[in-house]
Amino acid sequence: MFPPQNGASTPRSRAGTCGPIQGGGMNAPTNASWFDTVRRNASIAVGAVAACALFVTPAAAQGVIRDAEIEHTLRDYSAPLWVAAGLNPDDVSMYIIGDDEINAFVSGGQNIFVHTGLILAARTPNELKGVLAHETGHIAGGHLARSAEAQQQAMGPALIAIGLGVLAIAAGVPQAGAALISGSQAFAMGNYVRHTQVQESAADQAALAYLEETDQSAKGLIDFFNNNFRRYEFVMRRAPQYLLTHPYSSDRVEALRSGATVADHYNTTDGPEDLARFRTMQAKLIGFLQTQGQTLARYPVSDQSADARYARAIAYYRTAQMDLARTELTSLIAENPTNPYYQELMGQMLYESGRSAESVPYHRRSVELTHDEPLLMLNLARALADDRDTVDEAITLLNGVVRIEPLNSLAWSELAEARDFRGEQGLAELASAEANYARGNFPAALSFAERARRTLPRNTPSFQRASDIATFSGQEVRDMMEDNNGRRRS
Fold first, then answer.
1. If you average pLDDT over every residue of the chain, what do you get?
2. Domain spans in the chain, listed from the N-terminal domain onward
3. Pairwise CA distance, residues 325 & 348, whole Å
4. Fewer CB near the last or first residue (10 Å), C or N of the chain?
């Protein structure tokens, strides 16, 4: 697994797969401008730091990670909660942020972002589901839209205070005026945090209802708060009240406990399948995100469980110890040949080692087992594109990927190379325009689109698409130039 590079496309509704830190693999990296906007407007749902600031963003976030196995697990955990909340699961997107901060948030509509640090901090599936239920409460409650209104309303008292301060100074009372002006921010923040604290409490109570309706316990959410946030409460209680966007952890726990302990499913425990998928998810994250030493400390060679071998195979692979990696992975495939992610990882290892032809059967098998998972299709296409005899199949697969994920810039880039390899210059330049448009690189998108227009036959869908990209990108470039000129004048 690897954090996405800047300027790549944001994943949408479908999941991806893991890839090595060095590059390649099955990721659809993040659109930098889109993700920065999300970060600026993020509504942090849980996190110790979130309690000490008014507008908190996941500043340390490294980007969106694509992993089919993990995203499928998270969606399977979440889908019943979404249904209980009256949401359509197809309308909710979930993203994994490669960051060790214990955090999750909702932003940009029905989009849930979960940090890898939170997944690894959870001790049971029930704890993780509790957090996901809380985030679902934010979506169902329309808290993002209401937060925007609250921010605007909070500015009213601040502006009044500033106005009174100016009048006081003009009336010859400068000290009173200065006090009013300097306190204006506190007025705004105080009004806003009261609103966010109510929202957090409402999301907690909504989580209780969703968990109970889906025959699950809310004990995990209580345990998660106790284990991860209550230790920071002494810091929170020293902060001014107008800085606290969340209620105190102890107050949240007691409010949750009063409702959870009398619920019918309070003593319900996680099922064996949920536990197995949870352990596999954590093992995979540890193998890809932590050092080999940390991975082997958690999963020593003496541990011959499937999850331990999976984590070690990934750790060995990341440090180019291919013989050890293949030994661990071969044993897993022999025991469970229908696991698509074992097949995908073996194909990934071979492909990244420069053995594209050998990787094809494993990638092909992973696609067959997942019924055309788009980013596994991308893995297969990349391996096929290295051979002139199979480049046509690669193009067919890549066209399928971009139909499902039209903002997958990696797929568009691979398609551009495959088209160029086949001598289709106009279509190659159009694919490059699509890739740069998905990345938010509008000057490059405009350039490639104009070049495609000069080559493609007129009155064709491809020519029209190139014209559309040129029009939209051109407007973005003009807007950027106007913004830059405005900043220079100011």
1. 80
2. 291-336, 426-490
3. 12
4. C
